[in-house]
Amino acid sequence: MKKIIWRTILVLLLGIVIFGYVKINLKSNAVYYAKNMPRGEGQEPELIMLIDNLWWVDNPDI
Fold it and tell me: Residue 58's pLDDT is what?
């Protein structure tokens, strides 16, 4: 019974870590992904992604 509880806790923690990593990666690199995805003529997804994720995007201290 103890093994099942420990395995369940381990799987849940691992799932939370993986989910968090993916979420942070997608948020912090959203502008890069938007810039390199295929799009139609006249669309600017970079600007939309930049505005949506302004707090997550890395910016240099200038």
Answer: 67
Question: Could you tell me the CA-to-CA distances from 12 to 4, 8, 21 in Å, in that order?
Answer: 12, 6, 14
- pLDDT tens column, 44-61: 777 777 777 777 666 666
Give the dihedral of Cα atoms 17, 59, 44, 49; nearest 10 deg. 30
Hey, where are the domains in the chain? Answer: 22-56
Amino acid at 47: L
- Per-residue buried b or exposed e for 15-51, using 16+ beta carbons within 10 Å of the residue's own CB: eeeeeeeeeeeeeebbbeebeeeeeeeeeebbeebee
